Amino acid sequence: MKSIRLFVVMTQVLMVFALLVTGVFFGVILWLDKTVDLDGHVRFDRYQILRPKSGGILAELYVLPGSEVKKGQPIFRVDNVELERQIADTGFELSQAKIFLEHTQDQVETLRQAVFPLERQEQSFQIQRRNLEGQRSALRVEGLELSLEGLKQRRERVSALFEAGLVSEVDLREAENSVAQADASLRQGKLEIEESQIIQDSSREALDLIRGRQDEQALGFFKEANEWAYTVSKLTARLERLERRRDALTSYAEMDGVLIGAPEDEWLDRQVEAGEAVMTVVDPKTILFVGQASDSVLIRIEAGLEAYVEIFGLEKRSFDVFQGHVERVDIQPEVGATPGRVSYPIRVGLEQPWVMWRGERFYLRDGMRGRVKIRAPEDSLLTGFFGI
């Protein structure tokens, strides 16, 4: 009896154990059947790489990495020692040239007041006369333009009549000559206006000096003043060009987004080269994880499925998994993504593409490798076969 009872107990234990093993087995099969694991990498769909246009020392960082930025916002500035030296030298030369120009202009004005009072009055009258002549020429040009327009219309009518055989060739040539003469008169009138304007602009300060008996001395001062004025103009233009180059050393965001890059202490006072990638502005909504799916599992993946992304290299803490959803399943394979086999990109949007690191947001970087687990639909082939 004891042997039979022991046999019954052992049989019951074995049956319970078999049921447990069977349950675990089918549970594992069910979980494996409902998830698809894909290797892939992080990809930025919309971003701007900030590169200095000139090499130098990164002197100032206006926005810390991890912060939101707006389009047009300055991000960092590079100092170019040679450029700053050129700006300082040009600024000093410009200030000296302005001093000499002002001094020479004072000498010209003193000479004008002391030596040429009558001549200056005379030349002022000449300038006024030129101004009146220019106004008369402008009125004449306006009349010539109207006359020319009328003659052109007449020529068109005569040309049409000539083609119809109603007027002679002499009449046609006469109409064309009238247009040519009016056009020549109009050009002459415009030249007279330009000439009058040039005389007014160029002679306001010179006419009262070059008409006197002692004009040689006056012209000497006036020539010197013109030379200093030219020097001031040239130095001003050079300084503006240099300052524009310095402004170009400040890099600006060309889009709204988040600034991604190394910490501030790794960049400040560091030598950077022209065109070097320093920071990146990225639209956080376009930070995706792109997994590579083979054709054997492609049928189990569709847009909207839950996904969980693990990024290699990040410390395994509470943030080792990034939640998201499948946004798109590409219908064209990506050549070369997976050596030796065909794979299709699966784009996964991430709900939160950043983690807190040392009190700041650390956004995922373009190209980071990882793995995504995608929850497959309930009606997969294996679940249907087992009836689960």
Summarize the structure.
The protein has helices spanning 2-34, 81-115, 117-163, 169-203, 207-210, 215-248, 381-386; strands at residues 35-44, 47-50, 56-61, 68-69, 74-79, 250-252, 257-260, 271-272, 279-282, 287-293, 306-311, 322-329, 344-350, 354-357, 360-363, 369-375. Mean pLDDT is 77; it is low at 24-32 and 380-388.
What does this entry look like structurally?
β14 (354-357) and β15 form a beta hairpin. The chain is built from 7 helices and 16 strands. It has 388 residues and is an alpha+beta fold. It has a 6-stranded antiparallel β-barrel with strand order 1-10-13-12-11-16. A 4-stranded antiparallel β-sheet has the order 2-9-7-4, with no helix packed on it.
Apparent shape: elongated
Measure the end-to-end span: 42 Å
Mean pLDDT: 77
Rg computed from alpha carbons, rounded to a whole number of angstroms: 43 Å
How many helices? The count is 7
Major beta-sheet overview: 6 strands, antiparallel, barrel
Give the helix/strand class.
alpha+beta
pLDDT < 50 stretches: 24-32, 380-388
The counted number of beta strands is: 16
Which strand order do you get reading across the main beta sheet?
1-10-13-12-11-16
How much of the sequence is in beta strands? 15-25%
- What is the succession of H and E elements? HEEEEEHHHHHEEEEEEEEEEEH
Estimated helix fraction: 40-55%
Give descriptors for this structure.
388 residues, six-stranded antiparallel barrel, 7 helices, elongated
Blueprint (SSEs and pairs):
Layout: H1 2-34, E1 35-44, E2 47-50, E3 56-61, E4 68-69, E5 74-79, H2 81-115, H3 117-163, H4 169-203, H5 207-210, H6 215-248, E6 250-252, E7 257-260, E8 271-272, E9 279-282, E10 287-293, E11 306-311, E12 322-329, E13 344-350, E14 354-357, E15 360-363, E16 369-375, H7 381-386
